[in-house]
């Protein structure tokens, strides 16, 4: 997964790929239980697409895993 993460970070700068790349980076960090890094990646994606329900779901899920239930509920009910 570390090699995939490295390649995705290299792709991040390419126009039009930012959201999907950041979502994939967030998912890798989530699988590695690096929740703070996952949140950063998902929030980068969210800046480009603030109305994405998929990104909202991922953020809610990560906050839930961290035990931050109020934030989790906030993202999951938007």
Features:
mainly alpha, single chain, 78 residues, Serine Threonine Protein Phosphatase 5, Tetratricopeptide repeat, 77% helix, 0% strand, flat
CATH class: Mainly Alpha
**Helix content, binned percent:** over 70%
From the 3D coordinates, which CATH architecture would you assign?
Alpha Horseshoe
User: Which descriptor suits the 3D outline?
Assistant: flat
Q: Which runs of at least 5 residues are low in confidence (pLDDT < 50)? A: none
Q: Give the integer mean of the pLDDT values.
A: 87
Total number of helices: 5
* β-sheet strand percentage: under 5%
Q: Determine the CATH topology.
A: Serine Threonine Protein Phosphatase 5, Tetratricopeptide repeat
**Radius of gyration (Å):** 12 Å
Largest sheet: none
Molecular structure report:
Helix 2 (18-31) packs antiparallel against helix 3 (35-48). The model has no long low-confidence stretch (mean pLDDT 87). The protein has a single domain, classed as Serine Threonine Protein Phosphatase 5, Tetratricopeptide repeat (Alpha Horseshoe), CATH 1.25.40.10. The chain has 78 residues and is mainly α. It is 77% helix and 0% strand. The protein is built from 5 helices and no strands.
């Amino acid at each position: 997964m570390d090699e995939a993460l490295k390649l995705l970070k290299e792709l991040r700068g390419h126009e039009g790929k930012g959201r999907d790349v950041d979502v994939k980076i967030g998912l890798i960090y989530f699988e590695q239980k690096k929740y703070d890094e996952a949140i950063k990646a998902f929030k980068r994606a969210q800046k480009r697409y603030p109305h994405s329900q998929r990104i909202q779901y991922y953020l809610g899920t990560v906050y839930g895993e961290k035990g931050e239930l109020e934030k989790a509920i906030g993202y999951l009910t938007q």
